[in-house]
Amino acid sequence: QENIRIANCTTAAQYFHLLRRQALDATARPLVVMTPKGLLRLKQASSTLADLSDGRFRPVLDDPRVGSTVDRTAVTRLVLCSGKLYYDIDGHENRAVATSVAVARLEQLYPFPVEAAAALIASYAGINELVWAQEEPQNMGAWRSIRHRLEAASPAGVAVRYVGRPWRASPSEGYPTAHRLEQDRIVREALHVGAS
Fold first, then answer.
1. Is the omega angle on the peptide bond into residue 111 within 30 degrees of 0, that is, cis?
2. Among 136, 148, 156, 164, which is least packed by CB within 10 angstroms?
3. Which class for 146: exposed (0-12), middle (13-18), buried (19 or more C-beta within 10 A)?
4. In 3-state terms, the chain is what percent helix, strand and coil (to 5)?
5. Residue 106's closest CA among 155, 55, 141?
């Protein structure tokens, strides 16, 4: 019933503007922010002073490569993700090869930004696949609560797929090596490139 807010910010500016919006909003409701410590120290997640002073919180962030190195009309697969996984996908060795893939971020998970997500998806007229990628197992994370929203925002005939860990009783792999291998598999599947 939209009585809480849940966010997973990917930049320092987004985090700043989210907290600022929360403090200034007259509608008092709890804010849940999911941010791993590694993301707080990640250089790619830093922001400029202009982003901090002139920006605002945006619930959905488009792929910054689109328009510069990726042609929007050539994109056939739109990958939506949240949090640190974006940097794993964007920084992967095969990211440059996946020229028909755009990777966008969902910064606010609840209330779901219906209009912003629909506008982002509609801006990619040539997509034939919409992918939600997450680190968490399929029975955890955001997938189960936003799937119907993604399907509603998806154009007719565009498949909505899940990429991530299968259903599990535990949220983690248990071993760092197994985690890295599974993370690489998720990123490769999101980018639609073969496993090494």
1. yes
2. 156
3. buried
4. 35, 20, 45
5. 141
